[in-house]
Amino acid sequence: MGKIIVFANQKGGVTKTTTTWIVSAGLKRRGYKVLVVDFEPQGDLSDSVKAENEKYVTSYELIKGEATAEECIQHLDVFDIIPANQLLYNAELELIEMGREHKLKEALDSIKDRYDFILVDTPPNLGNLTANAFTAADEIIIPTTAGKYSVKAIKEIHLSIKQNQKYCSGKGYIRGLLFTRVKSNTNAGKLMQSVGIDICQQLQIPVFKTTIRETTAIENAQIEQLDIFVLNENKELIADYNALIDEILQGEI
Ligand SMILES: Nc1ncnc2c1ncn2[C@@H]1O[C@H](COP(=O)(O)OP(=O)(O)O)[C@@H](O)[C@H]1O
Ligand SMILES: [Mg+2]
Questions:
Q1: 151-181 pLDDT, tens per residue?
Q2: What is the pTM of this model?
Q3: What's the CA-to-centroid distance between 121 and ligand 2, angstroms?
């Protein structure tokens, strides 16, 4: 049975999309069967891997029940993907009318056992799409930068996940907070990281030992539409992501 891992944080720019992309590519390279669900209307992840998101059905049709997961999946070399485009913005409102937070979970049920991992990228808010992702999740990873406001956001997302567990019977537990875009040599960064770790301790949120460093290599990967393992430009960044994948895999068979 595939494990559904959701990457979420209501803040933008904290590397949800990048981390979903790179971790998924890394897991596939290690021989796992991987599906990515692009559940973010900007469709950046779909774009990063050159998925076709105009001609075929996407996560919008999936969530609306107009297409099955099987029909939405594109098989790419990097991994399988259900892409997204801007139509998904409509779902944010339409899901209120449908009154359901279980749509994504139900839609993935039929294909869940074909994969080892299903990784879901989410929008920068705690709206209906993110609620659907929480309900579907087995595990939730919260990427964050170490800024003042990013650290504050941890409390809000924690509350949102707890509410989802209570009202939508979401089983997803917080696998960990991940510090990304870390500038190792700034005192302010180190201070905010330690504030974040304190909040996590209070809320009993685990924190990944691995941190992902700040580097321009990510931008190059996006421009080239090639993941960092293929581009092979920045060995330290590759090592960071490999260490993260090792941590994610701890406890897996
Ligand atoms: N390790 C990194 N170092 C520097 N920039 C990064 C890193 N990871 C991602 N970025 C950049 O940060 C920006 C936000 O990343 P993105 O993954 O889109 O965040 P989110 O999905 O949370 O909004 C992008 O422009 C991306 O290129
Ligand atoms: Mg994003």
A1: 789 999 999 999 999 888 888 899 999 999 9
A2: 0.96
A3: 7
